[in-house]
């Protein structure tokens, strides 16, 4: 199937999942996770109506920016962001989704101040408490959100999370529900209900994420096909 056909199929499943729980499908954004796909694939996704594109790797994103791969749609950074690469991302993307430490917040603030801009971000939640994953612990999230709120060149627009890999059907649903509860709590307590996005759900679990309240899903392989990683 083509990229356009895959996007149409994802849209159909998004509509079905949203309607199951009485949600408006139009409220949910589809982000194409375009890691390891070239500029032409990005353009094909844009032509097919993708809402935004998301990149995981700074070097790859920079190369595709030089090729005008993202013209016509917002660009998000959705991968782990190292502090020494912040300069290459701040001001180049509409949203940094993977902000999981106060140190990274400080680095983004510093660079955004230099550029005299306000950088939109999501706070990443390590919802499964996994040592191998970055992100704020759920218990530390409220304090982190309060810290971010006082940074003048950062605008927190919501939360992002990736649950642990599940071996049972719908095993990720409780994690998604916890993220939604955190979002509601922090939004009410700190942000006057002005946070916008709950970014959760990927190719294998986006329907459960939508059922739990996600309004931004990040889909890669189900749109662009299987990624082939080089063997060492």
Task: Provide an overview of this structure.
This protein has one domain (3-224): Alpha-Beta Barrel (TIM Barrel). It is 38% helix and 17% strand. The protein has helices at residues 3-20, 39-47, 58-66, 102-115, 141-149, 173-190, 206-212, 221-224; strands at 29-33, 52-55, 75-77, 95-99, 119-125, 154-161, 197-199, 216-219. An 8-stranded parallel β-sheet has the order 7-6-5-4-3-2-1-8. α6 (173-190) links the parallel β6 (154-161) and β7.
Which descriptors would you attach to this protein?
232 residues; 17% strand; globular
Give the CATH superfamily.
Answer: Alanine racemase
Shape: globular
Provide the CATH topology.
Answer: TIM Barrel
Percent strand: 15-25%
**Biggest pleated sheet:** 8 strands, parallel
The CATH class: Alpha Beta
Tell me which CATH architecture applies here. Answer: Alpha-Beta Barrel
Query: How many discrete domains?
Result: 1
What is the helix/strand order? HEHEHEEHEHEHEHEH
Strands ordered across the widest β-sheet? 7-6-5-4-3-2-1-8
Question: Which structural class is indicated by helix and strand composition?
Answer: alpha/beta
Radius of gyration, whole Å: 17 Å
Total helical elements = 8
Q: Total number of β-strand segments?
A: 8
Mean pLDDT: 96
Amount of helix = 25-40%
The rounded distance between the terminal residues' Cα atoms is 30 Å
